[in-house]
Design goal:
With 169 residues, this protein is mostly helical. The protein has helices at 2-14, 22-39, 55-65, 75-82, 92-102, 112-121, 147-168. Helix 1 (2-14) runs antiparallel to helix 2 (22-39), helix 3 packs across helix 7 and helix 4 packs antiparallel against helix 7 (147-168). The protein is globular, with a radius of gyration of 16 Å. The protein starts with a helix and ends with a helix.
Length: 169
């Protein structure tokens, strides 16, 4: 129960007003709630770092950027949107950026949504060693890329495992 409360608290902390209007803020809140609901079965039961920490905002941004209401998006469609495209095709960052700017969001301003998007889409180089020069355990190593892409990869696996596999059984 405490894990669920912590998850909802994290979702609430991300639920901030979104320009350009109140209906967009409501859609953002619904996207966060849907993302939290879908990801809750896969949430780690103890404290841990890793891609799951950015899964909630990544899934919420994908739901928010879509044309449908977040509650109406089938899990299969969400998994398809999160699945990495082959090199040379638009990636999740490009798709979300295009949808957000198409809805009037200025992703270069200092709004919380813009800051969140920039944090998730900033390229981070590979990391295998700590600042002190010690090799990190394989679980803590970073292959390089964006937080959004890694969170989407993690989310795709867990949504497929927890939702799609269960529905086909």
């Amino acid at each position: 129960m405490a894990d669920t409360r912590d998850l909802w608290w994290a979702a609430g902390r991300l639920a901030f007003p979104v320009p350009p209007g109140e209906w967009m803020t409501l859609k953002w809140h619904r996207a966060l709630r849907r993302a939290a609901t879908l990801l809750e079965p896969a949430w780690p039961k103890e404290y841990s770092g890793g891609p799951f920490t950015h899964a909630l905002p990544t899934v919420a941004l994908v739901l928010y950027a879509g044309d449908s209401e977040p509650d109406e998006v089938p899990v299969e469609q969400l998994v398809a949107a999160l699945t990495p495209n082959p090199e040379g095709e638009p990636q999740i960052e490009d798709t979300v950026r295009e949808a957000l700017t198409g809805r009037g969001h200025d992703l270069e301003d200092d709004s919380p949504l813009s800051a969140l998007f920039r944090q998730l889409t900033e390229y981070r180089p590979p990391l295998a060693y700590s600042a002190g020069g010690l090799e990190l355990p394989s679980m803590e190593q970073w292959p390089g890329g964006t937080l959004m892409r890694e969170a989407a990869r993690w989310s795709t696996y867990w949504l497929d495992y927890h939702h799609l596999s269960a529905s086909s059984a």
